TrEMBL record:
Record PANTHER family: ATP-BINDING CASSETTE SUB-FAMILY B MEMBER 10, MITOCHONDRIAL, ATP-DEPENDENT PERMEASE MDL1, MITOCHONDRIAL
Protein name: ABC transporter ATP-binding protein
Organism: Archangium lansingense
InterPro entries in UniProt: AAA+_ATPase, ABC1_TM_dom, ABC1_TM_sf, ABC_transporter-like_ATP-bd, ABC_transporter-like_CS, P-loop_NTPase, Type_1_exporter
GO molecular function: ATP binding
Key words of the record: ATP-binding, Membrane, Nucleotide-binding, Transmembrane, Transmembrane helix
Any matching Pfam family: ABC_tran
Amino acid sequence: MSPPHVTARPPQSLKARLKNAGSLFRQLPGTFRLFWEASPWGAVVLGALTLVAALVPAAIAWVGKLIVDGVVAASSGGGPAAREQVVRLVVLEFGLMVGSVTLDRALALTRELLRASLGNLLNERILQKALQLELRHFEDSDTYDKMQNARREANSRPLALVMDAFAIVRNMVTLSTYAVLLVALSPWSVVVLVAASIPAFIAEARLAAEGFRLYSWRAPEGRKLNYLEWILTRDNHVKEVKVFALGSLVLGRYRTLFQKFFQEDRALALKRMGWGLGLGLLSLGAFYGCYVFVANRAAQGEISVGDMVLYLSVFRQGQAAFQGILSSVGSMYEGALFMSNLFAYLEIPTGQEAPRVLPARTAPKGRGNAIELRNVSFRYPGKQEWALRNLSLKLEPGEKLALVGENGAGKSTLVKLLLRLYEPTEGDILYGGVNLKDMEPEDLRSRFGAVFQDFVRYQFSVAENIGLGHVAALEDRNRIVRAAEQGGASAVISALPNQYDTMLGGWFEKGQELSGGQWQKLGVARAFMREDAEVLILDEPTASIDAESEHALFERFQELAADRIALVISHRFSTVRMADRIAVLHNGEVEELGSHTDLMARNGRYAHLFNLQARGYRD
């Protein structure tokens, strides 16, 4: 697993946070590229609307000053012309206000459209990355946390970061126009405006990092909270929850974890309120200090009443604009922290090998290829113990090999290596004389038909549940029907209300739930969709079906696998004894290898396990 990107724990001191801000804001170019890719026209429209909206407030403030001065002049004997001028100015301000409201609505509409476009783009990128990840990534909690953090923020955080950047531009343009007006009236008030707003920025940066820590670094506990909820709300858990009275235990753990989250959120919210109140009072004090100064100047006749109104309006709005800039910077800091999760996820390396120098090789097409394992050893990432050790084995074309052994002996691990879901830690696996490392994974896997013990129960139609075994033939109903017959699922399907078009599972409307054995027959049928498969793998294919169905299945299986390699993993020795050879795995090594007759004559581990199971049937 690669070291964390920029998702390392946020520094605690302000100095350290400011030092680290540069690396965090390097997330901005990538975010803006995504924003442009999502909607180029939307980016242009948003920029134009933002610029125009930034100029309107100063224009409204200036017209307001002219109205006040015009009213004073008209009331002092200015005559009809002065009164008409006031009316024209009021109409102009009305027009500016209409324009301001329209711009705000247009900006809101543009944001909503961009939110949808950008959220969809990012979700697609996240899902595309998920397709590129290897099995080892899904079995690693750190990678899972990165994925969940990325998914959680994809629909809101990137656009919020972009909008914060546009808000900074808008407020800076507005503030620059205000500054021109303020400097003409009182240069030092600009200094007061800036000085009163800086503490808010410091507090915002501090609280942003704490917010990131809460929402990002408690991802493992968040996953646990979701899991506890899953236990209490899914149909496949309800029986044990009821029978074993697990409800109070699970709900209690859920409540404890939720209360922990709530207390953390509450502490942060109170801290935000405290800082916000204190800094708000500081800002308010600065404003009224300037208010006294300006009102005194107006009372002495040094400035007009309109100048006083303009000054107060511009100072207050300028203060809000400056605080808006600092708040947006703090929010962007927090957004960049969250975006680092997304980019860390998208940049997860997905290749275990060095870049390929030579073109990928391919084994000859057809069922005449042998599988050979040469001193294969494997251990899972982050583990010290070996799952497989110095395993050498050869399967000839058309051979049926059964794997037996206790749980954890390495049977399913071997299947993962054959399908190149993992690479051997040591040694090589050859197919048709070609090292699996030199074959394209898609080419290799297209030659296998497989059914796993933990097969997926898709909440799709019956036809799709079977047809997904060979996506290219998903619309080939005749092929799906043949696969169902070969997998022993025809009787199950014929009893369903809409047969092959019946929706399965309980997640969606009119879904039909099946028993474990019925689902497993569909899973076996799915493996038989690959009629041209060169190798068949059955990993505990009969765990949930009755003995009669199991016998019928393996009779069909022997016929279908007559000229191709078949690898069978099973704890049922009535199934195992049909194989040409049986490999007994123990602690990741092949302890015994031979036919059923040979291994019984040897009277070793296999014979012991077989007799234990046979005794259970006899007793």
